[in-house]
Amino acid sequence: MTTRPVSSLSSVSSLSDAELATQPAAYWTGVAYEALIAFTRAQQAELGFTQPQFWLLRNLSKHDISPDGQGMTVPELQQAMRSYLRFEDDLHAEAQVLLERGWLTRDGEGRLWITEAGEEARTGLKRHAPEIRGRIHEGIEDADYVTALKVLRQMIRNTGGAVD
Fold first, then answer.
1. Which of 72, 53, 43 is nearest to 121 (CA)?
2. Are 71 and 129 contacting, i.e. CB atoms less than 8 angstroms apart?
3. What proportion of the chain, given as a percentage, has pLDDT over 90?
4. Closest by CA position to 118, among listed 76, 66, 75, 82
5. Are 60 and 38 in contact (CB under 8 A)?
6. Is the pLDDT of residue 7 over 80?
7. Residues with Cβ within 8 Å of residue 136, at least 6 apart in sequence
């Protein structure tokens, strides 16, 4: 017997634990992913930046993801971000916005570099992350969140995926 995903959250809340246990994980993780990304991006847009812009700054900052603070080309940045870029993310366009704001510069070889103003912006943008996370995690105990992640990681391992 195949179980169909319940199409509304109000319908899910009326299901028993036994019925919820039959719901397809792939469906619900997909729904969760889309909702979380949409919410996060909307929150960031209200603050005047996009998620890919923030990622560009983070990947170019020696105080964040970049191990050495060296400049990178857009293709190098796309490679570095391959596990979390979405198909609609246009790093060329996003980088252009940051160049116009003075948060990035481009050298003669096409490498992007974070500026002092960009580093200040990255730090300021990062300050909003706890508030966004707090809204997402509202009503969820840390222990429950950890349990959910452990379950997801085991499902990934069970299906041959890498969790590291």
1. 53
2. no
3. 88
4. 66
5. no
6. no
7. 36, 39, 40
- The answer to whether the CB of 92 falls within 8 A of the CB of 106 is no
Identify the bridge partners of residue 105 per DSSP, sorted by sequence position.
113
Which residues fall within 8 angstroms of residue 25, CB to CB, at 6 or more apart?
Answer: 155
For residue range 51-82, list pLDDT tens digits in order. 999 999 999 999 999 989 899 999 999 999 99
pLDDT by residue (tens digit) across 80-108? 999 999 999 999 999 999 999 999 999 99
**Residue 53 structure tokens:** 């812009």
Distance CA 112, CA 8 (A): 44
CA Rg value for the chain = 19
Cα four-point dihedral sign 24, 29, 30, 31: positive
Cβ partners under 8 Å of residue 58, min gap 6: 64, 65, 66, 122
